[in-house]
Amino acid sequence: MQVGRSESIHEDIEKWTAGSLAFAKEVFMAIRSPRSALALLALLLTACAKYQPEDVTSELEGGVEAREGAFVISGVTLENETGSVIDALVGRVPNFRIRRLSNQCPQISLRSHVSFESITNPHVYVDGTRIADTCVLDSLRAQNVELVEIYPMGFTTRPGYATHAHGLILVFMRSG
Question: Which structural domain, as residue segments, surrounds residue 137?
């Protein structure tokens, strides 16, 4: 690939960030001025530096925190709750909707645009174990729970949890 004047610098940078070693060799060989080579090297090192995002956490109403694509309710909020885990989530977590039918587990939607015409339940995990239905959220007392993480988009960076199109609810129980 020949570096020519017909290609824009933006195209050259895109090729650089794509990691093409052959292109890099040709660019360095085409640069005649050491100052230009150093400037290009500085630009590349800056552009290729490892991106480390800040840990952005924002607190919502009702003791809910929004962080890393999840809504998190911690022990302090849960220990003051007298009902079930599902009772603690309703009204606190944005877009958390529930539909109760007689003699059935609650149907849960974590996104506002989803209707209840089809089952859209998120996957529920308690202490890392996948639970078959949402009934467990009705049976667990909020006071016994240390932490609840709700992932409306259905994926987490925590290892061991499968993604799910309708979201994830991770419950971590208090020990002892």
Answer: 57-173
